[in-house]
Amino acid sequence: MALDATAVLEIGTHAIRVMVGEVRDDGVVSVIGVGEAESRGIRKGEITNRDDAIACARKAIKSAEENWRKSIHSVVLITSGGEAESKKSTGIHRIVDPSDNRLAEVDESDLTEVCEIARRISLPENRIRLHTLQQYFQVDDTLNVTSPVGMACEELRVDMLSIHGKRSAVDNFRKLVDDVPIACSDAVFSGLCASMAVVTDEQKKAGVLVVDIGAGTTDYVVCYDGFVLTAGSFAVGGDHITNDISIGLQIPLSQAEFIKKKAGCALTNLMERDHNISIPAATQGFTGKMVRGITLNTIINARMDEIFTLVKEQVERQCPNVPLSAGVMLTGGGAFMNGARDLGQKVFNVPCIHGKPFDVQGLSTTKEGPLFACHIGAVRYAASLKTTVEKPTMGQRLLRLLWGGAGE
Predict the structure, then answer these.
(1) What letter would DSSP give residue 244?
(2) CB within 8 A of 303, min separation 6: which ones?
(3) Which residues fall within 8 angstroms of residue 131, CB to CB, at 6 or more apart?
(4) CA distances (Å), origin 292, targets 190, 265, 279
(5) Taking Cα atoms as reference points, which of 320, 309, 143 lies closest to residue 222?
(6) Can you give the residue ranges of every domain in the chain?
(7) How crowded is residue 254: how many other Cβ atoms within 10 Å of its Cβ?
């Protein structure tokens, strides 16, 4: 028996996508409805025209309802906004009174207490917490403990990673959803959801970097030893490549997007310097032209290299010397850029592959996997919260605490 179906909504810079899915008892995500509409009124992951954005969101939701053949009453909102960040905090809990000359065993109530203390991280008023993820415990002087229940100690510590976003951006998107009108049950970080869709437990243990390249933003998440170590985003994505092509080749944006997808490559090849590409005429008065393939690819390479380098610099600064034995996984629309994987391998110096969601049924093509990774992960995330609510044991209440939420 599957859990109740969950609808997730991503309001992106290039497209607005809705997915309805349910998690079966065997852990497989069954996709039972998809809707998509062109995005207008959104730029770099933020709202620039509410009326246009609301109309597009309504169209995408209606398309998903027709595909599912049922009405959607609430959605989980997938957020990015280009300004998501992560911050580490430590909770300290005395298991016994310092005056007592004895030890005590750690139980689940102690875990709940120390995690709640660590979660009380102070954020600026303009930031909103999206998730709080547990990392290592410390039992007295013993470091990197993953399960301290039953261990004797005087003091218990835990490291927590808080993922937080720009409050105004999250609130504005929630208000937009309310005006569709439809209920917003939760807000989740796109990068974390993408990692939940494509990273297996074995890869999470070995060390992996997930890079989700959207039209207006790029998100990243680093996992190692079974934990999320850092996460973040910045407002550079596929639309910046299109804009660079438009300016560099002096062609309309629509033609720049067309030629980027048809003939663009993230790597330059001097052997093709004599290869010419024909750009067709457009309805807005553009008469068409011929450009050199090496020129087009040099423009694309510069921006894609910048995106990967920005991710690399942030990861190395936030968690240096973390091995990425499972390599780099690319998701989002930018993952399909020809040559992106080869360039990623060159920049990060580890294998780079398309992040394909595992244990999923219902997607029509293999290519849809990386494109809908964050949606599939959001369905998994929502299902994990439903499980903790339906079976509220002490350990499950702890799990609910660790996942956090944006409803604060």
Answers:
(1) H
(2) 236, 240, 241, 244
(3) 162, 163, 188, 189, 192, 403, 404, 405
(4) 36, 13, 11
(5) 320
(6) 85-165, 201-355
(7) 14
From residue 164, alpha-carbon distances to 119, 168, 275 in Å are: 12, 12, 46
Q: Give the Cα separation of 141 and 155 in Å (integer).
A: 9
The per-residue DSSP string of 53-99 comes to HHHHHHHHHHHHHHHHTS---EEEEEE-TT--EEEEEEEEEESS-TT
| Residue for token pair 């020809």 | 338
Is the entire prediction scored with pTM above 0.85?
yes
Query: Cα–Cα distance between 310 and 55 in angstroms, integer?
Result: 34
| 297-313: pLDDT as tens digits | 999 999 999 999 999 99
Domain 201-355 has CATH 3.30.420.40: yes
Asked if 286 contacts 255 with a C-beta cutoff of 8 angstroms, the reply is yes
Q: Could you read off the pLDDT of 151-192 as tens digits, one per residue?
A: 999 899 999 999 999 998 899 999 999 999 999 999 999 999
Q: Domain 85-165: which topology?
A: Dna Ligase; domain 1 (3.30.1490)
